[in-house]
Fold this sequence. Notes:
Shape of chain A: globular
Low-confidence stretches of chain B: none
Radius of gyration of chain B: 19 Å
Number of helices of chain A: 14
Number of strands of chain B: 11
Oligomer: heterodimer
Radius of gyration of chain A: 23 Å
Structural class of chain A: alpha+beta
Distance between the termini of chain B: 23 Å
Low-confidence stretches of chain A: none
Amino acid sequence: MREQPVGIVSFGAYIPRYRLSREVIAREWQEPPAKGEKAVASFDEDTFTMAFEAASNCLEGLDAARVRSELHSVFFASTTPPYHEKLTAGLLATALDLDRACRTADSAHTLRAATSAILSGIDAINAGAVGASLVAAADMRPAEPHTGAEISFGDGAAAVLLGAENLIAILEGHVSINDEFLGTWRRDVDPYVVQFPGGFEGKVGYPRVIHESVSALLGRLDVKPIDVTQLILYSPNPRAPQAVAKRLEMNPKNQLADALLGEVGDTGCAQVLLSLARVLETANPGDRIVVASYGDGSDALLFRVTEAIASRRNRRAVSYYLSRRRSLPSYGKYALFRKLMKTEPSEGSSSPVILWREVKQDLPLYGEKCARCGMVQFPRQRVCVACGAKDDFTDAKLARRGVVHTFTNDYLLPTPDPPTTETVVNVEGGGRVLVQMTDAGPEQVRVGLEVDLVLRKLHEGGGLKNYFWKCRPRD
Amino acid sequence: MGNIRDRVAVIGTGCSKFGENYNMSIEDMIVEAGFEALQDAKVEPKRIEAAWVGTLNSAFAGTSLGDALKIQNVPISRCENYCASGMDAFRNACFAVASGMYDVVLTLGFEKLKDSGARGLASTRLHPLLAWGVTAPNLFAFAANRHMHKYGTTKKQLALVAVKNHHNGALNKKAHFQMEVDIETVLNAPLISSPLGLYDCCPTTDGAAAAVICRADIARSFRDDYVLVKGLGLAVTSGAPYFQPGFEYDGFPATTLAAKQAYEQAGIKNPLEEIDVAETHDCFTITEILNYEDLLFVEKGKGARFIEEGHSALGGKLPVNPSGGLKSSGHPIGATGVRMIYEITRQLQHRMAGRQVKNAQVGLAHNLGGPGAVGCVTILANP
């Protein structure tokens, strides 16, 4: 067992750019107007792509060589993974270009999935098995149309890097409670999340279990409620956590953290990590943060913020994404994105063989640099496009930013969100790619536009998820 | 290096009706074009010693031609080089004749697009991720937006190409479209791939075209008004310019490279002054403007002004696409390059009635394939 403290080294978050106003939902069903909006994953996003962007943000600015040599554990947490059988954590580790000798595991089936993964990561670090562990959580839970869940559920992702050095927050202790309870569930055959009708979970499940875990945590560590700077409780709705905070003798007004329900929605198992990222963005050394999840029990964790927070606060996390939004114009668009309506299939084909052979090129986006003339090129070649040298290249990972050289808006390609903007992008530092532009309208593209490269689901041809890079205007 | 000049003659040409030929099979179109060319050359099918057939993907192998025309037991090669398949078939046939191997050879191009219901050509790159979903209009719209950005070319100038080529097409009974359009119609049409709207794009078309060629020194035994091959150029640049660092996208170097080869063989120093009529590959309106520049009629960036000033109109300094081009004739892929040979040959023979370019003696045909990657240029002239 390690003697030294363990905890959080870095954090990141991701919120989809598309937002659906609750007024639009209410109008669709002729209900009284509801407040706020929810984040909606675009048609080309899923929990992997969202988790990937959150994880990329989490690792941004860290020494890449050091990350590769120490980060040998990746957890993906979600109740809505892209595949029922096939690992997403492994896909994350590959796209993040981590070492092959990496433990990869998905944590699933409960809204507690993210905190349970954190505890497993912490245990592995404590045991000396790995130097660091990455937990990326994402959810986009299916909500039945014209229900409270549809109003409430939003999509998002967050990630934390756990380790034993350069900690921005030390894990002071944790408590886990197992509690068998049928309040919320979804079987294989259920298209939407099922909630037992009435007040059973709201009155008997949630407040009892989450109170039990947090009070046990504070009792075990001998921390007074007043000494908790921020209390992060999984929040199924805005009121439920307030009652719990009061019962814990805390002030909901200044101690209870924002669960982002109003602007983002209930992001499932990612919710408490998104709130944690939000809190860390403005945290001060010495702050004590309680994180408590809920689902078939509860995990409660207490963190103490360190001096190192100052160097890690400023990153793409919740505030960055909250201010970058794009309204979904109609409920119909949301219905198309979520495949709530049947449409003509137009998926085409794919090749797992090609995806395997080119994995280094297509996921971590490696091109090559000619050792003779220095030309950076993509896709990977045998013979240099510039000088003709054969098999004389070094790996060149393409930068994640570039400038639009030329473009077009295509109105024919079948898509839930026409037109499809195709761009030829000169990548910063070399290489040129042909990629679709995403999360932007046709009026936004122009020659010279600065873009970020983002990983998205290009199509589902061949009955599988074909992930590839797109670009998004940098703003 | 050798020179093709004055070694091969075109002695017969044929062309099927181009259009939505729902009532015609591939066989029907090949027979229509093939026999018209044979009869025009006064050559019996059994006189054909070898044949080259061009198609992108409507059929396979030499059998597609042989089975339709019953030209069998002779060498027939199928040529595929994107949208330049037809002219490259013609080009290969010319070299076979020039080699002395054959005296009389048939070349034919065809394509059947309307049997499938496809609305256009999808990306030819068969990869699950790279260039996935990219269409032909996209590839040329990339050049349009770059040209507009760099040289200030406008959508209105693009529209002038459509107006001109629809005007010419209205004079061509074999064209897919015989209708004039006004500039407002072109500008107000729905977008296909910005900035290209419906009328900036050639249609998807069925058709076939054919040419009979022979050794130049025996051409007069078939007809007096034969036409000589003066130059043949072909250049293949990267099929993925969108991945090519430094590819400017304001034109297609494959065209210029092919043109320079053909001009050198033909002894052409100043194409604008020496060429009387041209059929160029106007798959999209922007392509014709790029062609003016890439074929060295005008400097880079001056193409839009060339159409605006009327130089490429019938009666202009260098009429381009008197047939109506791909825009009005349509673009049955493998057929197009051979249809251009048909058009230029008959222009030089002064057989084109309403759309005849006065006193045409030297003509150019230009076929462009893929994302501007396969440039093919043929120079024909009267003896």
